[in-house]
Fold this sequence. Notes:
Chain A is mostly helical. In chain A, 87% of the residues lie in helices and 0% in strands. In chain A, α2 packs across α6 and α8 packs antiparallel against α9. Chain B has 271 residues and is of the alpha/beta class.
Amino acid sequence: MIKQRITSLGRSTLDTFESLGRATIFLFQASVGIPGKEGFHLWLRQMHFIGVMSLAIVLVSGLFIGMVLGLQGYTILVDFGAEDALGQMVSLSLLRELAPVVAALLFAGRAGSALTAEIGLMKATEQLSSMEMIGVDPLRRVVAPRLWAGFVSLPLLTIGFSVVGIWGGYLVGVDWLGVNEGSYWSNMQASVSFIDDVGNGLIKALVFALVVTWIAVFQGYDLVPTSEGISRATTRTVVYSSLAVLGLDFVLTTLMFGEL
Amino acid sequence: MMNDPQFVEVENMYFSRGEKEIFRGVDMHIPRGKITAIMGPSGSGKTTLLKLIGGQLYPDAGRVEIDGLDVHRLKRRELFRLRRRMGMLFQSGALFSDLSVFENVAFPLRVHTDLPEAMIRDVVLMKLEAVGLRGARNLMPAELSGGMLRRVALARAIALDPELILYDEPFVGQDPISMGVLVQLIKKVNQALGLTAVIVSHDIKETMSIADYVYVLSDGKVMAHGTPANLNVDRDPQVSQFMHGEPDGPVPFHYPAPDYYSDILNQGARQ
């Protein structure tokens, strides 16, 4: 009994490391796309599917999160007579934490799952194999444009999320609850550092973009080509990317803002 | 090399997937310019064999040579170069679902040649004409029937005028008419282009009617090989069971199971 458990523990550890290794080799092989105009067009098309199509959900969520932050922040700050600091609170929460993390989670659900399912279906219908037999490397033609489109679009979406969120906080705090407009903006300007806050938030977004897109395309490429396999891989994409984003966020926050 | 009549050589190949041994020492010689059929019951690894020949899977032991090149020793780049000389027709057709019929056939030309657009158009229309689907050029794969899908896939497979073409179960799931069309097309393509063809199939009648030479696989080995005429009169019980489609024989009807009566009487068991 105990021996069996040790055996299965060892096997699952080995399996985990093996698939980590496969995923790493995969990332290197898929990082170089097709050069020239054709590769650029393939990338642009994916930018549309992955980036532009995620715009609506990311911006709407950003607006609501900003509005909630404005409301919650106001009710707490007003007790201390500090409602003038609302702009600072809203912008720092968004830039440092909420925008990169929430945008990445939404991105994993909206674009990541679609990537896994799309590549998985191409595998299940032998489109990837037939591309290989035509003499075209699907890693370069199918995976690389998607990987790069995800890597570029999530940071841009994160910026959009922050901008709309700050505007949402303004709508609720200034237009509705009557915080002084001048202090909303000037407090924000005085307290937000471009490098420490905006820059670190963007670094987070870049890391999350890489991790989420990598997980999504790898799960699609590596899945068992059956309907059950595709559904499992899609679920795994969302679960793994969400956990990875939240876990990495803690690590990155410790490194960036940890020294008090 | 041109004098060598063998185009594809499979030597003592072993392959297993997980615990299951699929090939245990397979030897095959596939002659240049002929149609060679590989037959065998479902699950005998026929499709796997094509993937091994195409270099998509790697054998555990043994070699596959195409035109003197060891497929599994080539670098990734060289392998992709070799694949430009092959075409493969997949069971499902495997057309790119986001491209129209025209663009599917044009795809190999666009990625591997610098032909001007007008010439690509000519070549694509020629290939589509050969499979009788020139009028369907603007349809998307989702709008095609199964037989049409496979014909478009055939047009795409011959777009670059390959030297070797691999057919994976070309007749499965076809109605009698499109089956007949495909049989004719495969024969015609082979004669017109003088290419080497490998057909993997278990449709005996159709395959025997066009094959020049036949290998029969069973249990991970070549069970028999010869010309269709020779195999038809083969007296070996296993060969004759397969060739004449008898339900029971050396290949048992039953999946291995414990003794029937004791299994039925074993009331305590849950399943």
